[in-house]
Design brief:
By secondary structure, the protein is of the alpha/beta class. It is built from twelve helices and eleven strands.
Length: 335
């Protein structure tokens, strides 16, 4: 009887190699990919999701894409196993992914789960003791196979039952990618543009933005976190933010993201970024956001400027004085 593995496939090098090893051993494989607002290489047509889909197509295996939802945000807010150096709940995140995989096993008909994890590669979630905790708390004891580092762990059920030949599994450990790159060459695995992936929750400049959302949200929603990757963010009131585009690309993304009740602002008399005001809005919030916007234009200091204000189907022009200095603007910026 041919056995089936459910593979956590990020699209990076390690998970790709794990899948290829299983396929070469005659194991049927289905891939599972998770999207997140915090992936550093996520784009509309690029990034980890697209890479995972590409790898699945290349290997001719099915793939299911799952989104980390509101339940994940609650884990991020209060992780049982704590954070890394940033706001990264790596251990709890891994448990979350594997629990989702365990739930999907019955639907997919998989007998066990595989990952591309390498012992000692990541300082928080890939230590030997932590990897055992993750396996136990995910409910996958004995059914979680890590082909690249299998020989550093006790045999799993797939190995002890003879579904997978343990002798053909590997003993890779540590942070170097040299062994994986050599293995990729041996297995004829090519085009792996995102070998290590990345998480914005580990970046010091991004962490305050996430904390700000937690501190000023009545209810969490994924959109607020997706917007953190676009533009400059200013907390102008407890429930009000202004987002100012940094580039033409940001302006387009912000324009596409505007929701009913939110306000778009631009300077009428010169090149201008797009500003978007979200949350509760009053005249004082609009005036402050417009003055912040002008700081990122070439408007003359102290000049009275015309600001185009658009909310739903209403458009108006306001006169606003460009009188905020750099220190005043930065006092509202979410670092």
């Amino acid at each position: 009887m041919k056995r089936k593995a459910l593979a956590l496939l990020s699209g990076g090098l390690d998970s790709t190699l794990a899948v290829k090893l299983m396929l070469d051993l005659g194991i049927e494989v289905e891939a599972l990919n998770f999207t997140s607002p915090f992936c550093t290489c996520t784009g509309k047509n690029t990034g980890c999701k697209s890479e995972a889909v590409r790898v699945a197509q290349e290997f001719d295996i099915p793939i299911k894409v799952m989104h980390k939802g509101l339940d994940y945000l609650e884990i991020l807010r209060n992780p049982r196993h704590g954070y890394g150096k940033g706001l990264n709940p790596c251990v709890d995140c891994r448990i979350y992914l594997l629990r989702k995989a365990k739930e999907y096993m019955a639907e997919s008909g998989a007998d066990f789960v595989i990952t591309g994890e390498v012992l000692g590669q990541r300082p928080m979630s890939q230590r030997r003791d932590t990897m055992r905790v993750i396996e136990r708390e995910s409910g996958l004891e004995g059914l979680l196979l890590r082909p690249l580092s299998a020989h550093f762990f006790d045999p799993t059920i797939p190995e002890s039952e003879g579904w997978v030949d343990r002798d053909k599994l590997l003993a890779i450990k540590g942070r170097s990618r040299k062994d994986q790159i050599q293995l990729a060459d041996d297995l004829d695995v090519k085009n792996y543009p995102c070998p290590a992936g990345g998480c914005l929750l580990t970046e010091p400049s991004f962490v305050p933005k996430v904390k700000d959302v937690f501190d000023h949200s009545e209810e969490l929603n994924l959109r607020d976190f997706r917007l953190l990757k676009i533009g400059r963010h200013f907390r102008i009131a407890d429930r009000t933010k202004a987002i100012i585009g940094r580039s033409e690309a940001d302006n387009h993304l912000l324009e596409a993201a505007i929701q009913p009740g939110e306000t778009a602002i631009t300077w009428l008399d010169g090149n201008t970024p797009l500003g978007v005001i979200t949350g509760r809005q009053g005249q004082e919030h609009l005036d402050l956001a417009c003055r912040i916007l002008l700081r990122y234009t070439k408007a003359e200091p102290s000049a009275t400027c015309r600001i185009n204000v658009r909310c739903n189907d209403t458009v108006q022009v306001l006169s606003v004085v460009n009188n905020m200095n750099e220190a005043a603007v930065e006092s509202f910026m979410v670092a």
